[in-house]
Every structure is written in structure tokens, then in C-alpha cells.
């Protein structure tokens, strides 16, 4: 027996080194993503590890920049020049835009073999399909409408955790008076809009949010409710520090982690930073829904699309990638690091912390209660051109001196209309 096995492997390795046969299942997978912060990098390293364990070679195509705007620009130029990567992090309605370009691979065979329709909640699988066919594979569900709190800063300031916008400003005043920065913020358009959509939801509620950011209804965008939300949003600025302009989101999270700031409005990728810093929820930091949004859940689903590429190797690599991403082992370890919850319904939440458990319960409950809504700031509610138009109007207002909220609402309407037609 021993002789035979040895003999066989000797023949195989001789054939391999002579180039007579190729490594049957191995492929190079080039994956575009924008996961470069501490918590994000730890998460994506798990994907690399699992793929390499299957014999594939990981070619990292990381383009830094929270929210992924820079990554999308780089991706477009690669695809236009006829050289797309194996897979790319693309989310929400943008998947439809890429589908329209006719450059995506059909993942139905692997999806059917693995039963994705049964494993994924409808709200997730819907986003992954183009023209009824799977073209993307989901890695997680992020909740966006979180407020991250440093309880020590609150205690030292004598502030209470806010559940309404009025309470928020009372708390912010106390934290400021105690010498801390109330709100850790990074002045970048996607971060401005992440904070803004929380205010819109908190002030207007889910129906209003949907009219404005999903239906793009001009009356909603130009309404008194929107004007009130814009005013509250702008009022928050005086509770941020002078270094906010241009700051990366993870550096803002670090201000909450190290006790310089009291709060941050951010999706639960921020939890990846707290986790990477060894902090524990309920003790070192708290996750609470943004004011006025307790029963609502703004979702942001990360996913990878595969491009249609020639060659068996490419197809095999894509299949390995899709199967790995959907595996319960990956969905667990990745999301433990990333701060999100698994996209699959059947992954045990036992190893997850209280914030993730709450997110999971609220995700299920909000789907039942019809309070589950797509994040505008994270590309879930509109096409990228409309999202860009809203970002511009919001950020311009946030930074402008002397512009009224009424003017900003009117700007938003015209920018959205111009982007749509
Ligand atoms: C992505 C997250 C990412 C965050 C910051 C979001 O749009 O969905 O995965 O961590 O941007 O880069």
C-alpha cells in the first residue's frame, strides 16, 4: 500500500512539474473590495484564508475609502478596459446597473445546487438577482441606524442615553459642557448622509423615509418634514470637533473607543473596530438605535458579484468563492469580525455579542412589522447616480454658511430629478 501511494504521488508530482497536468481545482481569484480598516481587514482575511485552504490563490484588490466610492471608480475603469476582476463588492440596486451592462456571470447552477432560495431571507435574495437569476452572493446584513455610545463619557457628563432628538441635544450639551466631543464624525459625503438618513428616519418615520429615498417623491423631498430633518442634521454639526472635516470613519470610531467622544452615528461595521480593539458591548461601549428609530432597521447588505470571464479556471474559482462565502463557517467567522449578522437564516447566533443578537432579532421583527428599510447612504435604496445627487445636496448644505434648510430641500429635489432623467 505504502509503495503504491508513494508511487502514485511521485507520478503526479512529476506530471505537475512537467506541466503535463494543471492543478485541477486551483484558480487565482482577484477580489475587489474596500475593507481596509482594522476590523474590515480582519474580516476579509478570513475569506482569503478559507479560499487558500481550498487551494486557490487570493489576489487582493483593495481600494481604500469607506462607503466604496473610490472602489467603484477603479472598478469601472477595469471593466471598461476589458479586464474585470474575478469578483467585486457591489451592492443593492447597483447590481441591476451592472446586470444591464451584460458583464455578470450567472450563479444559478451553484445557487440551485446549494439551495440559496431556502437559505436566504427574501429581502436578501431579491437584491442578489438580476432578471430572476442569481448574479451576486451575500456576505452579511449590516444595520445602519445605530448610535455608538461611550458609557464612561456619558457618566462623567451626567448625560442620559437619548431615544428622541430632543433628548439627543440635551445629552450633547452635557457632554460638551464636560469637555468631551459629543459626536465623533468624519466629514465625508457618505458619512454625512449616513447621519442624515438617521435623522430623516427618526423625524419622518418609515413611510416618509420610503417616499423620500425609495420612491424619490418630490413632495416628500421638498416637505416640511424634510426641512425639519435638515435643520436637526445641521444642528448636530456644532457638536462635532474641528478635525471632523475629511476624517475617515474608523478614526471617528476610535474617538469613541478611547473616550474622547461620547457618540458616533454609524452602521455596525463600527462594531468591527470596537471588537478589534478588544472592547465588549454593554461594558466598554453601547449600541443603541439612533434617536426615534427604535423599531426600525435600515439595512445594508454586502455582496459580491462575479464577472463573466473566459476559461474553466475562472469559473471554478468563482464557484469556490461563492460556495465559501455562503458556507455557515464563513458567515459566522466573517460576521463576528465585521460587526454584521449572517445573511443566511440558519447560522447560530450563539457566539455573537449582544449587539449582533439584537440586530438579528430586530432584523426579523422589522421584516414582520414592515419597518425594514434600505439604506440610502449605503446604496440600497436607489441607483448610484441618484444617491450621488442626494449626497451632494446634503454635504453642500452641511458645510455651507447661510444656506437655509428650505433651499437645501429644493436643491435636493432638482438634483434628484436631474440624476433620474
Ligand atoms: C459597507 C461596509 C463597510 C463600510 C465602510 C459600507 O458601505 O457596506 O461593508 O465596512 O461601508 O467602508
Please describe what this structure looks like.
The chain has 19 helices and 14 strands. Helix content is about 50%, strand content about 10%. The longest helix has 25 residues, at about 190-215. Strand 4 and strand 5 form a beta hairpin. The protein has about 425 residues and is α/β, with parallel strands linked by helices. It has helices spanning about 1-15, 40-55, 70-80, 95-100, 110-115, 115-120, 120-130, 150-155, 165-175, 190-215, 220, 225-235, 250-255, 270-275, 310-325, 330-340, 355-370, 385-400, 405-420; strands at about 30-35, 55-60, 85-90, 130, 135, 135-140, 140-145, 145-150, 180-185, 260-265, 285-290, 295-300, 305, 370-375. Helix 2 (about 40-55) packs antiparallel against helix 16 and helix 8 (about 150-155) crosses helix 9. It binds beta-D-glucopyranose. Beta-D-glucopyranose binds near residues 34, 68 and 300.
Topology readout:
Blueprint (H helix, E strand, L loop, with lengths): L1 H16 L10 E6 L4 H16 L3 E6 L6 H12 L6 E3 L4 H7 L7 H7 L1 H4 L2 H7 E2 L2 E2 L1 E3 L3 E2 L2 E4 L1 H7 L7 H13 L3 E3 L5 H25 L4 H4 L2 H13 L12 H9 L3 E5 L4 H7 L9 E4 L7 E4 L2 E4 L5 H15 L1 H11 L15 H16 L2 E3 L9 H16 L5 H16 L1
Parallel strand pairs: 1-2, 1-3, 9-10, 12-14
Antiparallel strand pairs: 3-13, 4-5, 6-13, 7-12, 8-10, 8-11
Helix pairs in contact: 2-14, 2-16, 8-9, 10-12, 10-18, 12-19, 18-19
Question: Beta fraction of the residues?
Answer: 5-15%
Number of helices: 19
- What is the count of β-strands? 14
- Segments where pLDDT lies below 50 for 5+ residues? 1-24
Order of strands, main sheet, comes to: 2-1-3-13-6
Report the end-to-end length measured between terminal Cα atoms: 72 Å
The computed structural class is alpha/beta
Q: What gross morphology would you assign?
A: globular
**Residue share in helices?**
40-55%
* Spatial extent as radius of gyration: 23 Å
What ligand molecules are bound, each kind once? beta-D-glucopyranose
Largest sheet: 5 strands, mixed
Nearest-integer average pLDDT: 93
Amino acid at each position: 500500500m505504502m509503495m503504491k501511494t508513494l508511487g502514485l504521488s511521485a507520478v503526479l508530482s512529476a506530471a505537475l512539474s512537467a506541466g503535463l497536468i494543471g492543478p485541477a481545482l486551483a484558480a487565482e481569484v482577484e477580489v475587489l473590495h474596500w475593507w481596509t480598516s482594522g476590523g474590515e481587514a480582519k474580516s476579509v482575511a478570513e475569506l482569503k484564508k478559507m479560499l487558500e485552504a481550498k487551494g486557490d490563490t487570493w489576489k487582493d484588490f483593495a481600494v481604500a475609502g469607506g462607503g466604496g466610492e473610490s472602489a467603484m471608480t477603479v472598478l469601472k475603469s477595469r471593466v471598461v478596459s476589458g479586464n474585470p476582476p474575478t469578483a467585486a463588492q457591489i451592492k443593492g440596486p447597483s447590481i441591476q446597473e451592472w446586470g444591464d451592462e451584460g458583464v455578470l456571470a450567472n450563479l444559478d447552477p451553484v445557487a440551485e445546487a446549494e439551495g440559496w432560495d431556502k437559505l436566504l431571507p427574501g429581502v436578501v435574495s431579491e437584491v442578489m438577482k438580476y432578471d430572476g437569476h442569481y448574479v451576486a452572493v451575500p456576505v452579511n446584513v449590516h444595520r445602519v441606524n445605530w448610535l455608538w455610545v461611550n458609557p464612561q463619557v456619558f457618566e462623567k457628563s451626567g448625560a442620559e442615553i437619548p431615544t428622541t432628538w430632543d433628548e439627543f441635544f440635551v445629552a450633547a450639551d452635557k457632554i460638551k459642557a464636560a469637555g468631551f466631543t459629543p459626536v465623533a464624525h468624519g466629514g465625508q459625503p457618505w458619512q454625512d448622509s449616513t447621519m442624515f438618513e438617521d435623522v430623516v428616519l427618526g423625524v419622518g418615520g418609515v413611510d416618509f423615509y420610503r417616499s423620500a429615498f425609495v420612491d424619490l417623491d418630490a413632495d416628500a423631498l421638498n416637505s416640511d418634514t424634510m426641512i425639519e430633518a435638515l435643520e436637526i442634521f445641521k444642528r448636530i454639526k456644532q457638536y462635532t470637533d474641528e478635525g471632523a472635516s475629511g476624517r475617515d470613519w474608523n478614526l471617528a470610531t476610535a474617538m469613541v473607543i478611547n473616550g474622547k467622544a461620547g457618540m458616533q452615528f454609524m452602521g455596525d461595521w463600527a462594531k468591527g473596530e470596537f471588537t478589534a480593539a478588544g472592547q465588549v458591548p454593554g461594558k466598554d461601549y453601547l449600541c443603541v438605535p439612533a434617536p426615534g428609530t427604535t423599531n426600525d432597521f435600515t439595512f445594508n447588505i454586502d455582496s459580491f458579484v462575479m464577472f463573466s470571464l473566459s476559461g474553466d479556471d475562472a469559473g471554478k474559482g468563482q464557484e469556490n468563492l461563492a460556495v465559501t462565502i455562503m458556507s455557515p463557517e464563513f458567515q459566522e467567522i466573517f460576521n463576528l469580525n465585521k460587526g454584521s449578522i449572517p445573511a443566511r437564516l440558519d447560522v447560530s447566533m450563539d457566539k455573537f455579542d449582544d449587539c449582533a443578537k439584537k440586530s438579528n432579532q430586530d432584523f426579523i421583527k422589522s421584516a414582520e412589522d414592515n419597518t425594514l428599510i434600505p439604506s440610502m447612504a449605503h446604496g440600497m435604496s436607489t441607483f448610484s447616480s441618484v444617491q450621488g445627487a442626494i449626497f451632494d445636496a446634503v454635504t453642500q448644505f452641511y458645510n455651507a454658511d447661510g444656506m437655509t434648510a428650505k433651499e437645501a430641500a429644493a436643491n435636493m429635489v432638482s438634483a434628484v430629478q436631474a440624476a433620474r432623467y
